[in-house]
Design a protein that fits this description.
Blueprint lengths: L3 E6 L4 E6 L7 H9 L7 E5 L5 H9 L4 E6 L2 H13 L6 E5 L14 E6 L15 H7 L6 H11 E12 L3 H10 L2 E10 L8 E8 L6 E2 L3 E2 L9 H5 L4
Parallel strand pairs: 3-4, 3-6, 4-5, 6-7, 8-10, 8-11
Antiparallel strand pairs: 1-2, 7-9, 8-9
Helix pairs in contact: 1-2
């Protein structure tokens, strides 16, 4: 196994190991985990968990939920399992090393209330593919495409269940078109900007399976002040 580093959250209450030189999570994961607000006893499916960071943050903030964390790359799934064990969350988070396209509801004892994902962003033809295989699979649609993520979400969600993801803003039309074609109605969209005067690079999208038409557009989410520090809103996302 590659050498590992350890990051801490919530004043050391959560410790997250990840590969020093392989795929490493970004602030996208923190933003998505903060956005999702499950109810007690909700069942959540995370597609492409990586080192497990999103599932860990969600389970810490919502101790009454159950999380199924899916990861296709065996080495990353091993790290996610290690993080779950070391943070004593094995009673809440189940890490499953599997291709999401092979998932069936009966594998998880039924439909879920939420599907969340921070999936590969880039089409294979778009941009240079990272020579590190782990990073390449995490960032480019090599093993998993946007369609795969959304089709899996549709098949695993209960009717009225929620789907949430972060994706490049330039692919907003792709997301909305594909979600509606699969009867996951977009209900909330929010553009994410690095700075107040920069264009949006990412978008946070939430939809409902079988929902009625009608979406809300949230205010721009600004991550950094001009001096490079986090904005007040971004700082809150790192709190318990």
């Amino acid at each position: 196994m590659k050498s590992l580093t350890t990051d801490t959250f919530f004043n050391g209450r959560i410790r997250v190991k990840q590969h020093r030189n392989g795929y490493r999570f970004s602030i996208d994961a923190v933003l998505l985990a903060f956005h999702v607000r499950p109810r007690p006893r909700d069942r959540i499916l995370e597609l492409g968990t990586g080192c497990g960071i999103i599932s860990l943050l969600l389970a810490y903030r919502n101790p009454d939920i159950s999380v199924y964390a899916i990861e296709i790359q065996e080495m990353l799934a091993e790290i996610a399992s290690l993080n779950v064990e070391e943070n004593q969350m094995a009673d809440r988070i189940s890490v499953i090393c599997k291709d999401m396209k092979e998932l069936k509801q009966n594998m998880l004892s039924g439909a879920v209330d939420w599907v969340i994902s921070n999936p590969p962003y880039r089409r294979v033809q778009a941009g240079r593919i990272n020579p590190d295989d782990q990073r390449a699979v995490a960032r480019h649609e090599i093993m998993i495409t946007l369609s795969d993520v959304l089709e899996t979400a549709r098949s695993m969600l209960r009717n009225g269940g929620r789907f949430a993801m972060i994706f490049p803003a330039e692919r907003t039309a792709d997301i909305v078109e594909k979600m509606r074609s699969l009867h996951i109605e977009p209900k909330f969209l929010r553009m994410i900007h690095s700075g107040r005067h920069t264009e949006a690079k990412l978008i946070l999208v939430e939809g409902m399976k079988g929902g009625r038409p009608g979406a809300k557009i949230g205010p721009p989410l600004i991550i950094y002040r001009e001096n490079g520090s986090y904005t007040d809103e971004a700082e809150k996302m790192f709190l318990p």
